[in-house]
Design a protein that fits this description.
With 342 residues, the protein is α/β, with parallel strands linked by helices. The protein contains 14 helices and 13 strands. The chain has three domains: 38 residues, no CATH class; 130 residues, Rossmann fold (3-Layer(aba) Sandwich); 158 residues, Response regulator (Rossmann fold), CATH 3.40.50. Helix 1 packs across helix 2, helix 1 crosses helix 3 and helix 10 packs across helix 11.
Length: 342
């Protein structure tokens, strides 16, 4: 507050009254004080005295989506660890660009926590500066964030497991439904999973045909539309690799509605092992989502205890179900027992 008062050219008492909206402050003076406070990222915090005395026993969690299975499962694992350690969770949902701007604009007011956990979202340069101005520990989960300790999968490796599986089965004309999050289009999951597709085809000596790649917003309905686009090609693919199970499930709906058989006519593989994947008999690359949240929680506890918390990349695994088979499989062949885990 002394810095604010100095910059505004007023006394500490006047600065305090202006910031607390006291009626006996001239509007011109109030505006000058508020401008100085904004420039210095200063806010009045009711927790100031508590912070001065030590830890708050609270952790802020920033998440772009709450209703999606992936983020809810991440949060469940994280919260279970923090709850067992008697730490409270303050949840901040930044659902769109306006929410995000507002959150980072008001970020100094969040100085009432011991740590911040960012779930499944990238942090831009200006946002990183605001976040680090809090002076607390920062952890990321559900995606690699190079500036902070983070826990994630290797998206490129997961993509290779999916595409290599189709190549192993003998597919040579493989389509890809790439998914982007409209809120977080730059999130690393998409580029990593797309890179895997291109690298796998090149290593197999196959051409990368732009027409076999369709990029859509993340979601099942988008996957259904993308599959219709692939089927409209003069020579449709014999197999499709989708960036997520939700997208793959949408693609399967389109295939069934057009009378095509899965996997006899076309194979489909996704990534994540969504709870619906097993019910739909979808071959997928499973990632341990809840475990990533648990690992992030343990990182927070280590940092609060003054210990190191190195980042972690958790392994994925191919889960073979009934949506993939060699190209042109007969019904009898595709019905043979071949399900299992690798």
């Amino acid at each position: 507050m002394a810095d604010v008062a100095r910059r505004a050219g007023v006394s500490m008492a006047t600065a305090s009254r202006a910031l607390s909206n006291h009626p006996h402050v001239a509007e011109e003076t109030r505006a000058r004080v508020l401008a100085a406070a904004e420039q210095l990222s200063y806010v009045i915090s009711p927790e100031a005295s508590r912070l001065a005395g030590g830890a708050t026993d609270r952790v802020a969690v920033v998440v772009p989506h709450i209703s999606r299975w992936f983020f809810a499962t991440l949060l469940e694992g994280l919260e279970s660890v923090l709850r067992d350690a008697d730490l409270d969770v303050l949840l901040y949902h930044v659902g769109d660009a306006a929410d995000r701007r507002d959150f980072f604009q008001r970020l100094p007011a969040r100085r009432k926590v011991d740590a911040v956990v960012v779930l499944g979202m990238p942090i831009a340069g200006g946002e990183r500066d605001r976040l680090e101005s809090m002076g607390v520990h920062i952890v990321a989960a559900g995606g690699q964030v190079e500036h902070y300790p983070s826990v994630s999968i290797d998206d490129a490796a997961a993509g290779r497991q999916a595409v290599d599986h189709l190549l192993f089965l003998g597919h040579r004309r493989i389509g890809m439904i790439a998914a982007i999050d409209p809120i977080e289009p730059g999130w690393p999951a998409g580029p990593g999973r797309a890179r895997a597709y291109h690298e796998a085809l090149i290593e197999a000596g196959l051409p990368v045909e732009p027409g076999l790649v369709v990029t859509v917003p993340w979601g099942g309905l988008s996957g259904a539309d993308a599959m219709a686009q692939l089927l409209s090609l003069r020579e449709p693919p014999t197999a499709v690799y989708a960036h997520s199970d939700e997208v793959a499930l949408g693609a399967m709906r389109t295939l069934r509605r057009t009378g095509l058989r899965i996997p006899e006519d076309i194979s489909v593989v996704g990534i994540d092992d969504h709870p619906m994947a097993e019910l739909a008999d979808l071959t997928t690359v499973a990632q341990p989502v809840r475990e990533q949240g648990v690992a992030a929680g343990k990182m927070v506890l280590s940092l609060l205890a003054g210990a190191a918390a190195p980042g972690a990349v958790v392994p994925t695994r191919l889960v073979v179900r009934g949506s993939t088979a060699p190209p042109g499989s007969s019904p009898a062949r595709s019905a043979a027992p071949r399900r299992g885990r690798r």
